[in-house]
Amino acid sequence: MKTRHLFGATALALLPAAAMMAQDTATCENCANTMTVVSWGGAYQNSQVKAYIEPYKALHPELTVVMDESSAESVAKMRAMAEAGNVTWDVVDTLASDAIRMCDEGLVMEFDDIDAVLAPAPDGTPASEDFGDLLINDCFVPQIVYSTTFGYRTDVADWGGKVPSTVCDVFDLETFPGKRALQKRPIDNMEWALYCDGVAKEDIYDVLGTDEGVERAFNKLNGIKDQVVWWTAGAETPQLLADGEVVIGSTFNGRLFSAIVEQNQPIAMLWDMQDFDLDGWTIPA
Questions:
Q1: What's the first-to-final CA gap in the chain, in angstroms?
Q2: CATH architecture of structural domain 146-277
Q3: Domain extents in the chain
Q4: Per-residue buried b or exposed e for 38-77, using 16+ beta carbons within 10 Å of the residue's own CB
Q5: With contact defined as beta carbons under 8 Å apart, do 122 and 17 qualify?
Q6: Parallel, antiparallel, or unpaired: how do β-strands 228-231 and 180-183 relate?
Q7: Does the structure show a pLDDT above 90 at 176?
């Protein structure tokens, strides 16, 4: 394993305003001068470069930051690197659910006292209190709350002037024909499938916790699987919509906002049953 640029990794990983910690951090003489930051690519990663990387590099011009777009595969790649004894990543943006798994497996660092490494809020509130329940474990520092929702094209002639109004319209191939884009992982898809198969919101996870519930969700998804394009990176759905390869698809709300507002694409957002989730920073062990 290379010698880590640990002070830089910690500053970047543990504080949204990375430059604030950088001002109080001494240069590490024995640390590497490169740092690999792993995220999700696209407009989201570009925003992180602007908000975190550039201010930090301005204070530490000797540091070379390499950006990687492999967060969607972070669990598998971290396992492989740990097994090989060659960890090449320094800071990783992960889903909360992935952070739980990686922390349990010892793939990422645990922080003994989060308030010792995180600066307090501007009003002096300790970081642990400021984050509250969003601190899901001792390995994960939350940095964004977002929603996974649907975008759809507003110019689909086959829809006869109708537009989707509920998430269940995603499963209605008769009224809204055309290809759909769904993320290539169970999260969100299973919940939407059960909800649109008649399961009440408050009962979804009880049902999903049974073998019968899982089978029921898959059966619902099987009804549209021939019309599904599976995606792994958030930037894919906006591009698929813009190219007309799909007529409706799930992705992260910020990706759709960028396509609609900045690129002026004929796309609208369907907010029904949007799923809130959490991303944050982890540091490989």
A1: 11
A2: 3-Layer(aba) Sandwich (3.40)
A3: 6-144, 146-277
A4: bbbbbbbbeebeeebbebbbebbeebebeebebbbebbeb
A5: no
A6: parallel
A7: yes
